[in-house]
Amino acid sequence: MPFYHRLGKIPKKKHTTMYKADGTLYKEELVSSKGFSGIYSNKYHIHMPTRTIEINELDKVNYRVWNEAPLKHYHFYTDKLKKDGDFFSSRIAYLHNSHCVVLAAKPNKNPDYFYKNSFAHEFIFVHRGSGVLLSDYGKLFFEPGDQIVIPQGTIYQMHFDDFDDNKIVVVESDTAFEIPKHYKNEYGQLEEHAPFEERDFKIPEYMDAIDEKGKFSLIIKAGHRLFEYIIPEHPFDVVGWDGFLYPFSFNIKDYNPKVGRIHLPPPVHLLYTTQHFVLCNFNPRPFDWHEQAIPAPYYHSNIDSAEMLYYIEGEFMSRKGVGEGSITLHPMGIPHGPQPGKTEESVGAKFTHEYALMLDTFEPLNPTLNVLDANDENYYKSWMD
Ligand SMILES: [Fe+2]
Fold this sequence. Notes:
Blueprint: E1 5-8, E2 27-32, E3 40-45, E4 54-58, E5 74-77, E6 92-96, E7 100-105, E8 114-117, E9 121-128, E10 131-135, E11 138-142, E12 146-150, E13 155-160, E14 167-173, E15 213-222, E16 225-233, E17 238-243, E18 248-251, E19 270-273, E20 277-282, E21 285-286, E22 306-313, E23 326-330, H1 342-346, E24 351-352, E25 355-361, E26 366-367, H2 369-373
Parallel strand pairs: 8-15
Antiparallel strand pairs: 1-17, 2-3, 3-17, 4-16, 5-23, 6-7, 6-26, 7-14, 8-13, 9-12, 9-14, 10-11, 10-13, 12-18, 15-16, 19-20, 20-25, 21-24, 22-23, 22-25
C-alpha cells in the first residue's frame, strides 16, 4: 500500500525490546518485499513465527491444463461450474500463464484451517457475498464489489456471513499489485487526477492477538504444490504491527471513471499494475459527447497483450450474449471489437451502466479444460452476420 499504517502495540523503535507480562520478549518479524528494498511491515508476535511440529505434502493443485487449446476468441460462463469448498478449496482455474492464474469460486463453507500463498500475491474480487478476511494484520470486512489485495506470504482466512450465493474471482500474480506510478506525486500521495483517493481504501482493523496452543493446520501453496504445516500456536498471535505491507481493498463502485469527447482507450480505466499484466475497472459513465462520436470501441489488435474481461453487472455496450459472470478472452495477435450492430447501436447513446474487470497480460493467457466445460463454443463466430 502507498501509505503507512499501524495497529496495536509496538515498541518505540524497531529491533528493540518489548516484554510480555511474564518477562519474556515479544518476537519481532520483518515481512519485507524485493529483498530489503521494497515495502515492508514489522509484526510483533507472542510466539516465534517459525515453530512447526510437522510438514505434510498434499495433492498438487490441478488447474486442468489444456495443452491443445486452439488460438481463438473465447467466451465462457464462470457461474456454470461449481466446486464445493471454502474460499480456497472451491477455486476453479480458468486461465493461466507463467506469471498469473485466473480462478473463480463459489464458497459454500468457511475454513477450519489457515492458508498462505507463498509464491504469489492474490487479488480477490468479491462479486457476491460478504464477510471478514482475517489475518495477523487484523480484520478486513468485505462486501460485493470489493477488490482485495493480499500480499504474498500473508496467512489468512475468508469467512462468509452466509452461503446463499457467494462468488469470488481470484487473480494470482508472481509480482505485486501496485498503484500506477503516474497516479502518485513525488511524495507518494495520490494525485487529484487519480481515479481513486486514499480514503477509498479499506485497511485492516484491530483484532486482539490470539494466544492459543494446539495443533493448527496451515495450508501453504507453493506454485502447484501444497503443504500442510502443523503449527503449535494460533498464527494470529500478533499484538501490533506497522508498515506499508498489508492486505487492503478497494470497491469497484468507488472508481471515478474518466470520460472524453471521443473514445478513450483502456489505460484510463487502470486500477493496478504488476510486472506482467494490468488490471482495469470499467464503471457506469456518461458516453463520449462529440456529435459524431462512436462510443463503442473500434476494432483492435493488441499485438502483445491478451485481454480478459470479467462481466459484473449492467449492459455491456460492445458484446452480444455475455452476462454476469461471463469471461471473454481475446488473445494477442488477432483483432477483436464490437459484434455486428453494436457499433451502430452505440452512436448517440448517452450513458453506459456496465461494471467489468479487465486483465491485460503481456504474455499469452492459456485456457484450461474448465474453460472447455463452461464454453460458449460459437463465440468466435459471433462476428458473422
Ligand atoms: Fe479490447
